[in-house]
Amino acid sequence: MGISQPQNLNSPPIEQQRPYGVRVSLPPGDPFRNLLGPEWHRVHWYATDAERDAALAEMSRRHEYSRSGDRPALVFEKVENLAESRGL
User: Fold this and answer.
1) Is pLDDT of 63 > 60?
2) Looking at the predicted structure, is the pLDDT value of residue 76 above 90?
3) Burial letters for 39-75: b for 16+ Cβ neighbours within 10 Å, e otherwise?
4) End-to-end CA gap in the chain
5) Residue 28 CB burial class (10 angstroms; 0-12, 13-18, ≥19)
6) pLDDT of residue 88
7) Are strands 75-80 and 20-25 parallel, antiparallel or unpaired?
8) Is 35 strand, coil or helix?
9) DSSP letter string, 43-86
10) What is the pLDDT of residues 7-43, one digit of tens each?
11) Which residue from 6, 19, 49, 52 has the fewest beta carbons nearer than 10 Å?
């Protein structure tokens, strides 16, 4: 008997180097720092610097449904894993 829904099989993720990242953190004085902690951050990794730059532009843009004067209340920072990007 075959597998009825092969698209639902769990397959291991394809390991790909993703040396270029965007670090997202909260600015000093943000009230969410009281909830998440002063050292909270999240890093999103990308395979190329072009992908990273496109994602950074999308993340940091002003949302079309925001109120006038609203801006993203996050700090975005480019990061790079030198060992992966340089092949060390």
Assistant:
1) yes
2) yes
3) eeeeebbbeeeeebeebbeeeeeeeeeeeeeeeeeee
4) 47
5) exposed
6) 63
7) antiparallel
8) helix
9) EEEESSHHHHHHHHHHHHSPPTTSPTT----SEEEEEE-HHHHT
10) 666 665 556 788 999 999 999 988 889 999 989 999 9
11) 6
